[in-house]
Amino acid sequence: MTHTTSPVSTNPIQHAQSLAERSLFAPPPNPRVGCVLLNAGGRLIGQGRTQRTGGPHAEIMALRDAQEQGHSLMGATAYVTLEPCSHHGRTGPCCDALIAAGIRKVVASIADPNPLVSGQGIERLRAAGIEVEVGAGAEESRELNIGFFSRMIRKTPWVRIKAAASLDGKTALDNGRSQWITSDAARADGHAWRARSCAILTGIGTVLEDNPRLDVRLVDTPRQPHLVVVDSRLETPTDAQLFTPERRVYIYAAQENADKKSALEACGATVIYLPGADGKVDLAAMLRDLAHREVNEVHVEAGHKLNGSLVREGLVDEFVVYLAPKLIGQGANMASFGPIAELSDALELDFRSTDRIGADLRIVARVRGRDQF
Questions:
Q1: What burial letters (b/e) apply to 9-37, b meaning 16+ CB within 10 Å?
Q2: Is residue 28 predicted with pLDDT exceeding 90?
Q3: Active-site residue (options: 59, 297, 301, 318)
Q4: What pTM, to 2 d.p., does this model score?
Q5: Sign of torsion, CA 39 44 46 49?
Q6: To the nearest 10°, the Cα dihedral for 131, 137, 138, 141?
Q7: Is the pLDDT of residue 10 over 50?
Q8: Least confident stretch, 26-30, 138-142, 172-176, 347-351
Q9: Scanning 64, 83, 87, 311, which has its CA 20 to 30 A from the CA of 243?
């Protein structure tokens, strides 16, 4: 029997990276990983990417792809964007599957930061006589999985504030109205950022004023992110639109109210008390708790008060800001904090990208130094 193979049009690790990028919405809390298998002649015989939580990892998908096509895996090379796992979690160890398949060499972009793996997969492969190289595409893989690396290393999620504003930085009119400052295209793009996150975070002010759904509707997604509400006094209405069966809702409170807690839990919410010294929710403790609940990326869509609190406490990693080509004048700011005494005290950002999205400008800016972990 003759089996067809095909050449890889790009560098194989770049090909694997493109597969990982196609898993942007699906696998959290697992990392986004791609895998490419080449035979001894350098021909593509299998490829795969991480599936939804509980589903096969990229390596397993690639091995299945090759086997279903009838290709021999003996002596093949696996290019994978993250160290193959070595532990039993929701699935079995990928390094064992590669060993059993007869893979000769593994090229991995970067070591897995998960303490349950963290080099053990590489060691197991080498102990089985498999050649292992690490480093090709490391920056790209880490960036694609910045939230996973944050949760594993810092023990907190990657926190990203999304805001839609006028060119003069106003996110709402003086009377509070904000729908819609930016274009349809910008709103759809914002839903894509929602979809890649593990959880969408908002405050009780936004819930009471807008009664939002805060789900993903404008792009196709295989799952809905969790919803997190900062609600110090447990004021969330039980008939709020945010309660849907497709996702988990976490409500963080500071002041105990047993009756309201029971009512909200009857709606499907999980209520967590984390009071801070100021009588409000301890936001840093909340993020640590979310990391414990396997949240990699937190997408914040909140008002200027909660945004300001997150900035003031040094908890924000990145901003995604859509600027509309219009001026509003008096209105709400993106984040209320300060005042600061000197310009040198300003929060320093680094622009990561600037893109036209419809009629608007999207700026992705990262808090300087926050990705150094």
A1: eeebbbbbbbbbeebebbbbbbbbbbbbb
A2: no
A3: 59
A4: 0.93
A5: positive
A6: -110
A7: yes
A8: 172-176
A9: 311
Q: What is the mean pLDDT of residues 82-111?
A: 90
End-to-end CA distance of the chain: 51
Q: Which residue has the tokens 């403790």?
A: 285
What one-character DSSP code corresponds to residue 80? E
- 83 burial via Cβ count (<10 Å: 0-12, 13-18, 19+): buried
Query: Residue 258: what residue type?
Result: A
The identity of residue 350, as a single letter, is D
Based on the residue annotation, tell me whether 21 is a catalytic residue of this protein: no
Cβ atoms of 251 and 236 within 8 Å: the answer is: yes
Whether residue 162 contacts residue 300, with contact meaning beta carbons closer than 8 Å, is answered with yes
The 10 Å Cβ neighbour count of residue 42 is 11
3-state secondary structure 129-154: CCEEEECCCHHHHHHHCHHHHHHHHC
pLDDT, one tens digit per residue, over 275-296 is 998 899 999 999 999 999 999 9
- Tokens 């070595």, residue located: 86
